[in-house]
Design brief:
- It is a single chain.
- The chain is mainly α.
- It has a domain of about 130 residues: Orthogonal Bundle (Tetracycline Repressor, domain 2).
- Helix content is about 70%, strand content about 0%.
- It contains ten helices and no strands.
- The longest helix is centred in the middle third of the chain and has 27 residues.
- It starts with 8 loop residues before the first helix and ends in an 11-residue tail after the last helix.
- It comes from Cupriavidus agavae.
- Keywords: DNA-binding, Repressor, Transcription, Transcription regulation.
- GO terms for molecular function: DNA binding.
């Protein structure tokens, strides 16, 4: 009979996530992970696999509790045009108030992933494509209800908003100034006749 694990897997994963988020994938050593998680190296490998597998699990958990949660909640809870405003209002709020200013773990991973690591690049690209599709759905729905002009190409707008979100989250890591972040969002949303107003963090 297999022996039960003598640790809380979710707590250990959360500790690994904090370590990766603070230092990045490449700079985080296995020793640092075992110390943060309170595990021996064999226990870590038995429970989570190697460092890469652990990182991908930590990133997946982060996304479930952040970006994916936000997309589901906002798309279900707001009319499409207001959903776009809400999404960026929350991004501004996170960028201005999150401490320490680590930025978004997904965007940090995008900046770190190199051509020599196609698996990591593919994981990031998949998530960013999901975010772009989220924007495209909202723009298309807003055009259908008349809140965004039909003259805009929904795919082009979605790509613009994706670039805006990525750029803003990079900026917030080193310049977490609310006025600056609002200024990056305001012109882009104005093109769509939307407002960069604050609706609260949700």
């Amino acid at each position: 009979m297999a022996r039960p694990r003598q640790f809380d897997a979710q707590t250990a994963l959360a500790a690994a996530q904090e370590t990766f988020w603070a230092k990045g994938y490449q700079a985080t050593s296995t020793r640092e992970l075992t110390q943060a998680m309170g595990l021996t190296q064999p226990s870590l490998y038995n429970a989570f696999g190697d460092k890469r597998q652990l990182f991908l699990q930590a990133l997946d958990d982060y996304l479930n509790r952040s970006l994916r949660e936000r997309m589901l909640r906002i798309e279900a809870g707001y009319p499409p045009a207001q959903a776009l405003e809400q999404f960026f209002a929350e991004s501004i709020e996170r960028g201005a108030r999150e401490l320490p200013h680590r930025g978004c773990m997904l965007i940090n991973t995008a900046l770190e992933a190199s051509p020599d690591d196609p698996e990591m690049q593919a994981a990031v690209a998949t998530e960013l494509a999901m975010l772009r599709d989220f924007f495209a759905r909202l723009v298309t729905a807003a055009q259908a209800d008349g809140s965004i002009a039909p003259s805009h190409d929904a795919d082009d707008v979605a790509s613009m908003l994706l670039s805006l979100q990525v750029g803003m989250r990079v900026l917030s890591r080193v310049m977490p100034d609310r006025a600056l972040l609002e200024a990056t969002v305001r012109p882009a949303l104005a093109v769509l006749k939307l407002r960069a107003t604050h609706h609260g963090p949700g």
